[in-house]
């Protein structure tokens, strides 16, 4: 019997010729990623269990990306950065994207692929639930807690239950104004926040092939919001080019066998999909934007590992060009490379940055910022009874800092259109075939700086 | 795991996420510093909707409730191990839910923080906050003392060895995957 993509990767990682869903296997980890919130407590467990002077199993395979609580005066957050620095020093870690240094990058899940740390066919473990984002480039990528991470630090190994694969087949092409975020919100709306619990969520079909790498990352990013262990997309020509530009070895890239077994399959026709909005307080409360047009808002937020990538800002800029926002609108690029690109990439002769600023959008520093609330002084954090529309991935009660606030989730196009309208708005009337083609062009043409083999 | 566990229940619903278990702004505190870690107990479940009542009383860092009774998908959201840790610090010994989000379950087991037990029944609709419950792990039942009714719990399954060992590190030492002592 055939194996799915995730099964093949786990079989290789376990040193076996085949695995089946439900098998409990010990796998060799290829990359361990951690950040400022979970790195220090994971390292404390590592030192408790392996001894003060113990060394990591392989320092070159550990990637440390502070991103959560960076631009804050909070003394405890500052201390966590100091502890990460100590860990990096003691373990002589070559891949440390330290805050307030020239190497600082920003949000970990966007940094990993940008800097060439995501290798197709590899096992990538991170101390963050959205580690599943990296599955967009054909890796088995999943999030774990501090104890598991500490165990990997010392041994390079992790036990995993081989997940069943839940297949999502995408056909056709998205219409102008509709984005990958709408696809994943609709899917979660259909299957629920535990609809794919313990599963590998694999996206296949020509509809996936029509999406850019940024958009594929958006799909995999929110796999965890359906309860999945990982999201994954097989590598195609476009992904291969993206990876090779960064010097990544693609020799282990795989695809599911034609006779692989799936727990379930769901199919979507992309051209029939309309923009989606997830109402408060669950990503599963997705409805077509046409069902909630005109509902009141106070705040708009464009950012995070889900909706803070270059293409997300270009999509917003296409809508915001020569318009003004009526809401309190925040934009937080995921990484420094995205931040630089929005200063460079143009939409009809104006840079994305200029368009955002002229529209009245407040631009923050690359980091997680208000996506998860964070310390009091965090940029864009909700403080009271705001009603926000956001490109982030979670609209749980209190997620962006205030339990009294309400959060709607949507694509960057829908958030930009709503910011202009001052209430929930359908982005489609704001775009046409020509202007929407600029989104694809702009992100295709923008080779990000700072790419290449990780230094 | 031979002992019985008795305590007062704190009842919540479906999809209690990690932001409700421990809001992100508190993740800055140290989990190792004995004084600072009390903050995790102090703010455990502080992100719940207010109508569910207070899990930890104002000014305290430990709760009077040691068993959480929940619906489906308990612990969804972030991978923060601070979530099961916060519940443990507040004094929780077990959670009884219809299902768990994968990472929370894994963290609870691998870190040895608390017992994530499963039941097929919506016990959160039959038990009220403050009711005394007894969990008999060998028998696999939860008894609701006010009504005297007993409900079956699902077997712990393939992670039982890790649970019995008390966490991933103890388990790996038993297996000889890592050295006996640091
Ligand atoms: S941007 Fe938000 S979801 Fe992404 S890693 Fe940061 S806090 Fe998590």
Structural notes for this entry:
The complex is a heterodimer of chains A (455) and B (182). Chain A has 15 helices and 20 strands. Chain A is 32% helix and 17% strand. Chain B has 182 residues and is α/β, with parallel strands linked by helices. Chain B is built from six helices and seven strands, in the order βααβαβαββββαα. In chain B, helix 3 links the parallel strand 2 and strand 3. In chain B, 51% of the residues are buried. The mean pLDDT of chain B is 95. The chains are: A alpha/beta (455), B alpha/beta (182). At the A-B interface, helix 2, helix 3, helix 5 and strand 7 of A face helix 4 and helix 6 of B. The complex binds iron/sulfur cluster (SF4). Iron/sulfur cluster (SF4) binds at residues 67-68, 107-109, 128, 130, 304-305, 368, 371-372, 392-393 of chain A.
Ligand set: iron/sulfur cluster
Residue fraction in strands of chain A: 15-25%
For CATH, the homologous superfamily of chain B is named as Aconitase, domain 4
What's the CATH class label of chain B? Alpha Beta
- Helical fraction of chain A equals 25-40%
Based on the coordinates given, report the CATH architecture of the largest domain in chain A: 2-Layer Sandwich
| Helix-and-strand structural type of chain A | alpha/beta
Mean pLDDT of chain B: 95
Could you say which overall geometry of chain A the principal axes of the C-alpha atoms support? Answer: globular
Describe the secondary structure blueprint for this structure.
The complex is a heterodimer of chains A (455) and B (182).
Chain A: H1 5-14, E1 24-28, E2 31-34, H2 39-50, E3 62-64, H3 75-90, E4 95-96, H4 108-114, E5 123-126, E6 140-143, H5 146-155, E7 157-161, E8 165-171, H6 180-191, E9 200-204, H7 206-209, H8 213-221, E10 230-232, H9 237-245, E11 264-269, E12 276-278, E13 286-288, E14 299-303, H10 304-307, H11 310-320, E15 328-332, H12 336-344, E16 346-347, E17 350-351, H13 352-359, E18 362-363, E19 387-390, E20 406-409, H14 412-421, H15 433-445
Parallel strand pairs in A: 2-3, 2-5, 3-4, 5-6, 8-9, 8-11, 9-10, 14-15, 14-19, 15-18, 19-20
Antiparallel strand pairs in A: 1-7, 12-13, 16-17
Helix pairs in contact in A: 2-5, 6-8, 11-13, 11-14, 11-15
Chain B: E1 4-11, H1 18-21, H2 38-42, E2 65-69, H3 82-89, E3 94-97, H4 102-110, E4 115-118, E5 132-136, E6 141-144, E7 149-152, H5 160-165, H6 168-175
Parallel strand pairs in B: 1-2, 2-3, 3-4
Antiparallel strand pairs in B: 1-5, 5-6, 6-7
The complex binds iron/sulfur cluster.
Iron/sulfur cluster binds at residues 67-68, 107-109, 128, 130, 304-305, 368, 371-372, 392-393 of chain A.
């Amino acid at each position: 019997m055939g194996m799915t993509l995730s099964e093949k990767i786990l079989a290789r990682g376990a040193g076996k010729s085949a695995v089946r869903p439900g098998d409990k296997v010990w796998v060799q980890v290829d990359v361990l990623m951690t950040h400022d919130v979970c790195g220090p407590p994971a390292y404390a467990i590592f030192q408790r269990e392996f001894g003060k002077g113990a060394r990591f199993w392989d320092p070159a395979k550990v990637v440390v990306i502070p991103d959560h609580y960076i631009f804050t005066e909070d003394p405890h957050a500052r201390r966590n950065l100091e502890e990460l620095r100590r860990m990096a020093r003691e373990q002589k870690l070559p891949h440390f994207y330290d805050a307030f240094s020239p190497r600082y990058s920003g949000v970990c899940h966007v940094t990993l692929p940008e800097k060439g740390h995501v290798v197709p066919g590899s096992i990538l473990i991170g101390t963050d639930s959205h580690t599943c984002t990296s599955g967009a480039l054909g890796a088995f990528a999943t999030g774990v807690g501090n104890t598991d991470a500490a165990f990997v630090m010392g041994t390079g190994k992790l036990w995993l239950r081989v997940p069943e694969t839940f297949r999502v087949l995408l056909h056709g092409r998205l219409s102008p104004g509709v984005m990958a975020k709408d696809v994943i919100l609709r899917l979660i709306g259909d299957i629920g926040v535990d609809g794919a619990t313990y599963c590998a969520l694999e996206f296949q079909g020509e509809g996936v092939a029509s999406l850019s790498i940024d958009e594929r990352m958006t799909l995999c990013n929110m796999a965890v919001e359906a309860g999945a262990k990982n999201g994954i997309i097989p590598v195609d020509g476009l992904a291969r080019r993206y990876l090779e530009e960064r010097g990544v070895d693609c020799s282990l890239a795989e695809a599911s066998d034609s006779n692989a077994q799936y727990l379930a399959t769901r199919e979507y026709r992309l051209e029939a999909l309309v923009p989606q909005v997830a109402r408060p307080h669950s990503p599963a409360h997705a409805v077509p934007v046409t069902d909630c047009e005109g509902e009141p808002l106070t705040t708009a937020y464009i950012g995070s590992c889900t909706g803070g990538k270059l293409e997300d800002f270009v999509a917003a800029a296409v809508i915001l060009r020569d318009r003004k926002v009526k809401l309190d609108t925040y934009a937080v690029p995921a990484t420094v490379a995205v931040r630089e690109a929005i200063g460079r990439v143009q939409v009809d002769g104006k840079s994305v940055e200029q368009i955002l600023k002229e529209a009245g959008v407040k631009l923050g520093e690359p980091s997680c910022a208000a996506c998860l609330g964070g310390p009091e002084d965090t940029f864009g954090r909700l403080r009271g009874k705001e009603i926000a529309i956001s490109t982030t991935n979670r609209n749980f009660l209190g997620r962006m800092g205030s339990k009294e606030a309400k959060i709607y989730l949507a694509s960057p196009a829908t958030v930009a259109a709503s910011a202009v309208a001052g209430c929930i708005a359908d982005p489609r009337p704001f775009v046409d075939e020509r202007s929407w083609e600029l989104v694809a062009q702009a992100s295709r043409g923008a080779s990000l700086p700072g790419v290449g083999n990780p230094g | 795991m031979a002992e019985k566990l008795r305590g007062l229940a704190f009842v919540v619903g479906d999809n209690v996420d990690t932001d409700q278990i421990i809001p992100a702004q508190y993740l800055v505190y140290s989990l190792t510093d004995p004084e600072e870690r009390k903050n995790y107990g102090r703010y455990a479940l502080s992100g719940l909707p207010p109508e569910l009542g207070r899990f930890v009383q104002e000014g305290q860092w430990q709760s009077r409730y040691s068993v959480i009774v929940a619906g489906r998908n308990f612990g969804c959201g972030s991978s923060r191990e601070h979530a099961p840790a916060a519940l443990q610090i507040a004094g929780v010994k077990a959670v009884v839910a219809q299902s768990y989000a994968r990472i929370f379950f894994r963290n609870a087991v691998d870190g040895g923080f608390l017992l994530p037990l499963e039941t097929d029944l919506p016990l959160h609709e039959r038990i009220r906050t403050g009711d005394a419950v007894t969990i008999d792990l060998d028998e696999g039942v939860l008894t609701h003392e006010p009504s005297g009714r007993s409900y079956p719990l699902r077997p712990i399954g393939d992670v039982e060895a890790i649970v019995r060992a008390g966490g991933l590190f103890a388990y790996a030492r038993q297996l000889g995957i890592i050295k006996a002592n640091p």
